[in-house]
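Reminder to self: keep the SMILES exactly as supplied, no canonicalising. Ligand is pyridoxal-5'-phosphate.
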Amino acid sequence: MTPAAFAVLTLDAVRHNLSKVRSCAPEAKIMAVIKANGYGHGMLRIAEALQDVDAFAVARVDEGMRLRKAGFKQRIAVLEGFSCTEEFEELLTYQLEPVVHSFTQLEIIETITEVQGCNIWLKIDTGMNRLGFKPADFDLVYQRLNCCSLIKQPINLMTHFANADVANDAKTLQQIKLFNDTVDGFIGERSLANSAAILAWEQSLSDWVRPGVMLYGISPFPEVTGQQLGLRPVMELHSRLIAIKPVAAGDTVGYGGSWLCEKSTTLGVVAIGYGDGYPRYAKVGTPVLVNGQRVELIGRVSMDMITVDLGVVTEAKVGDSVTLWGETLPVEEIALWSDTIPYTLVCGVTQRVQLIDK
Ligand SMILES: *Cc1c(COP(=O)(O)O)cnc(C)c1O
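Structure tokens returned for the bound complex:
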């Protein structure tokens, strides 16, 4: 018997979504972003499904080490880089490619002379105001890095967008221009685009693209689903009914008694809750599929369970299958009902949920 809460991962869908990246950016090399445990899908299985990309990207050194220890030989960029000498040495040992974004890092790099051939990604902050050197510091930093025997030439150049998910956004245009102006005349491969930019900002494609969320079949845009963009969702989150009972008008359901039954109905208890990563803030009315039929969430989400109004699904019985999101119930829709973005839902699936490959 499968555990109560489990997620089915369709790896063919990952490959389909990769082909969508290729059709949007046919000239570009692909750095597949598989940080945060492959956006909650299981980093190693996703890496396995994406064997023929040009590089992987993770956020942290330990994620890159895990890939190496599992035997992956591809290039691996580490998007947060490193923050001390020890971490940088680990990076070198595992042949990971750090994003270099700060003077602290530059100074550490300059102290190391006994190693060679380290590929780095020099990041310019063109307006996101998170990681990256200011454009005004770029020339100097580039020259200093060029003097380090450790660093492989030519240096790769990158930036990251703040608003690429916003159609016709002026700030994105500014960021593209500022990046291009800053690196103009310098050699080195360029990388700007995340999923939203791959899908909506053709002028940002350049030498490398960095798709993340779209590989998992999820839309980076609010109010649009991955399926509407020609993507296929990878994760389906499932559980089952563990109790069914009548509720009478006037009864309340769940913690705080916040849901008041107005008309007698049948209630279903489903074995999934925020302890599994189902969003605590999913509102009453959030759709849930019971035997493939849509019903509504009622009452508060608790740690291990949710309650649904079985209403019209009269033949439902204990043990029946429940789908929380997937092919026929877009995770984007659940995100809207929970005042969040789909990224947080898939990343938030917890250890307790068994991941099963399909
Ligand atoms: C996470 C991340 C990406 C991928 O973003 P998506 O929106 O998931 O495509 C790309 N680049 C950087 C620097 C990131 O941190």
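Points to follow up:
The chain has two domains: 11-225, 235-357.
DSSP finds eleven helices and 18 strands in the chain.
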